[in-house]
Specification:
This protein is an alpha+beta fold. Helix content is 31%, strand content 38%. The protein is built from 3 helices and 4 strands; from the N terminus they run βαββαβα. The chain has a 4-stranded antiparallel beta sheet. Helix 1 packs antiparallel against helix 2.
C-alpha cells in the first residue's frame, strides 16, 4: 500500500535547452545531495508564448525527486546554472508513493 508521508517530497519539473545543460544541473543536484534522483527525458518539443511571440524549441525535461525542504537550494542551483532568462521550475507535492522509495529519497539527502 502506498504511504502518505504528509507530502514531504517534491517532484520538480525543469526544462533545459540541451543535453549538456540538463546533465550538468542533474549532476550538481545529485552530487550535492540536494536531490535523490534526477531523470532526464530527451527530445521533447515545447511550444510556448514568450515576449508576444509563439516559440518552438527542442528541450530536455528534468524530473527532480527531493525532499520539500530542499526546494530553495534546488531553485538556486537551477537559476545559477541555467541559461534561460526565466527557467521553468515547477514543484508538485508527492502525496503518496511506495514507502521504501520515499524513505530512499530521505536517506539520500541525509548524507549531506
Amino acid at each position: 500500500m502506498a504511504l502518505n508521508m504528509n507530502a514531504n517530497h517534491h517532484l520538480i519539473f525543469c526544462t533545459c535547452p540541451d543535453k549538456n545543460i540538463a546533465e550538468n544541473i542533474a549532476r550538481l543536484l545529485v552530487e550535492s545531495n540536494t536531490a535523490a534522483c534526477v531523470n532526464i527525458l530527451p527530445s521533447m518539443t515545447s511550444i510556448y508564448q514568450w515576449k508576444g511571440q509563439v516559440e518552438v524549441a527542442e528541450e530536455q525535461l528534468l524530473l527532480i525527486k527531493a525532499p520539500k525542504a530542499h526546494y530553495q537550494a534546488i531553485e538556486s542551483t537551477i537559476r545559477s546554472h541555467h541559461p534561460y532568462e526565466l527557467p521553468e521550475i515547477i514543484a508538485v507535492s508527492i502525496d503518496r508513493g511506495l514507502p521504501e522509495y520515499l524513505h530512499w529519497i530521505d536517506s539520500c539527502h541525509s548524507l549531506s
